[in-house]
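Annex B. Sample input.
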Amino acid sequence: MTGESHDLLISIIKMMIEWEQDYRRMPDDSKSVINRLNGFLIHHTKIEPSKNIREFIIQLRSLSIHELGFEIDDEYKNNRILNTDGHVDSAIKYWYENSIQNDDVNQNLVKEFLLECRKEYKETGNKKIIEMYSEVRSFISASNYCLSANRIMSLVGKYSNTSDSIVKIREWYENANLLSKDNYLCPVCGKILDNDILKEFRCTDMCMYYRDKESLLPKKFNVDNSGSKYKKLKRGIYTYTLLPGVSELRIYDQLAGCYGYEKVLLYPEIDKFDISVIFDTGVIYIDVKDFASPHDLVETLIKNQSFIKMESVRDNDYVYLVIPEHRQNTYKGGNYRNIVKKRILQLTNKVRVVSEDELHKEVGDIVNELY
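Annex B, continued. Sample output.
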């Protein structure tokens, strides 16, 4: 199951568990979740999308998780999300709770590394820690989803004298079960694709958007016969760090190509923002936010108190919140950017909300003003 389809299944189960607590009120994200499932059914199955809540509930009660198009452990694939009483199936609820716990544990490995780097830098002022964090964080990329254990150890060795926390990246990976030949990777996210021609080597909806747009084909991955062990990112890190990072790294490379790598920084100040563009009279700070729902995006910013850091920049600095191209162009619930922009304006006037396409013009206009 891809990271995006796994996230969708988790969202459906979570929504139904919340609804069980009070049937008089639909969860806030219900419309978004149902729209996402309908889009998933269109692209991955021959099942007709639901036209209303009643049809949606019937689908969850009558079709197994496997029939809905989700790949899941054999133990659960024939279960339906809802039982005949309309409650979340107990076995599915058990799977959901364990999945959440495991993904949280994996994702926390990256957060722990971030917090340790910030703590060490605050105590020592060693700028190598900033360099280390930026390189390690950008290491979670399509080219490093599946790799030899030697490459991981090479990065560990590079910074072994800088910080003991560097060894933590070994915990981000698990053994990869590769075929002796005919392994294929997604050209967008680097994930190992199911070698099944009937599934057309599909990956996440984001990946398929860029693959279709740019006519990208799966990449063949040949196993080294030298006896090297291969590793792949753990699912929680793939889902919540690598996938959102695809847009961050693309935008970073585009901006650095225009203004130079010495002026464009990735994960500056140990991940205070995703990208910064530095000029003599100010800094342009950029946060790229990749959420399936614009409403979830805003609520997460509020929950994480992200506006505190955005409001703390200097008067002559700029802060941009960027909506990735695939979200802006594939969201079915309205104009994604406008939904976020309207809500953000109610909270702060410091943050400019733009689509990915608009960002480059905005940055260019600011650069021209500064010079």
